[in-house]
Amino acid sequence: MKLASIPEGIERVLTVSAHPDDSEFYAGGTLAQLADAGAEITLVVCTDGARGGRDLDDIPATRQREQEAAASALGIARIERLGYLDGDLKPTDELRDRLIGLIRQYRPDIIFGHHPQTFFTRYGNRVQMGHSDHRASGTALLDAVYPRSASPNFSPERGAPWFPWSLFLFDCSEPDHRVDISAGFEKKLAALTAHESQQGVAGGLTRAAHHVGTFFGNEEQPAEGFVRLDLRGRR
Ligand SMILES: [Zn+2]
User: Fold this and answer.
1) How far is the CA of 96 from the centre of ligand 1 (A)?
2) Ligand 1: distance of its center to the CA of 134 in Å?
3) Of residues 212 and 35, more confidently modeled
4) What span, in angstroms and rounded, lies between the C-alpha atoms of 232 and 93?
5) How far is the CA of 77 from the centre of ligand 1 (A)?
6) Higher model confidence: residue 13 or residue 223?
7) Three-state DSSP class for 54?
8) What Å distances lie between residue 137 and 15, 76, 90, 233, CA to CA?
9) pLDDT for position 202
10) pTM score, two decimals?
11) Residue 110: inside a domain
């Protein structure tokens, strides 16, 4: 599959992840390149990430600090934390409604989020297990995007309708769109390195990103893979 560049003319981006390092891990290079090109990026984190480390003391505060450093490495403009308990995320009406509110508030051209059906992904000889929080976040996001955010008949108290141009679903087992992240890879690694408490998880976050990143491209040219859904035609 030929590697793509980031889309041009993108002003606003919303990326919705389950945990404090997911957007960075799956889409950090693409997001960094979009920020460099002038896009204003809002990062939504659904859970507090409290079960994602080894040391159970004060994890949410630590992960919040790390998140801020990682977001700044990528050029992300702001973080919206929804504060659900790590490991217990469900695609509830409440989560969906809060996402509708954020979509209508920030009016993103592109929305990034978890593919809702990923139970596991094979990267060559390595398997990355899926996570129930990721699927819950992806399900709530897709249900928020359509039909709800787009229609004035749903949640009118949460603002004027909005429908994004494209959805880029990361954390997917069969990507149909691979973005060349040569220009954003160093920033992605810096963002992942900022998540210090996660370096011991799953064999090391940055090492895993190297593996995943290079798998989508080749040894010399890292890439990120997405299922790309152009909802209003490609731009
Ligand atoms: Zn996660």
Assistant:
1) 18
2) 6
3) 35
4) 26
5) 21
6) 13
7) coil
8) 11, 20, 7, 25
9) 44
10) 0.92
11) yes
CATH number at residue 9: 3.40.50.10320
User: How many domains does the chain contain in total?
Assistant: 1
Residue 180 token pair: 């060349």
Q: What separation in Å is there between the alpha carbon of 86 and the centre of ligand 1? A: 9
Q: How far is the CA of 21 from the centre of ligand 1 (A)?
A: 7
Establish if 68 belongs to a structural domain. yes
**Residue 152 C-alpha to ligand 1 middle, in angstroms?**
32
> What DSSP element (H or E) covers 81?
strand 78-84
147 CA from centroid of ligand 1 (Å): 26
Residue 16 included in any domain: yes
The pair phi, psi for residue 175, each rounded to 5°, is: -65, 145
Q: What is the mean pLDDT of residues 38-58?
A: 81
Report pLDDT digits (tens) over 130-170: 999 999 999 999 999 999 999 999 999 999 999 999 999 99
Q: What's the gap in Å between 34 CA and the centre of ligand 1?
A: 22
CA 61 / ligand 1 centre spacing (Å): 17
CA 17 vs. chain centroid, Å, equals: 5
Domain containing 72: what range? 3-230
- 235 located within any domain: no
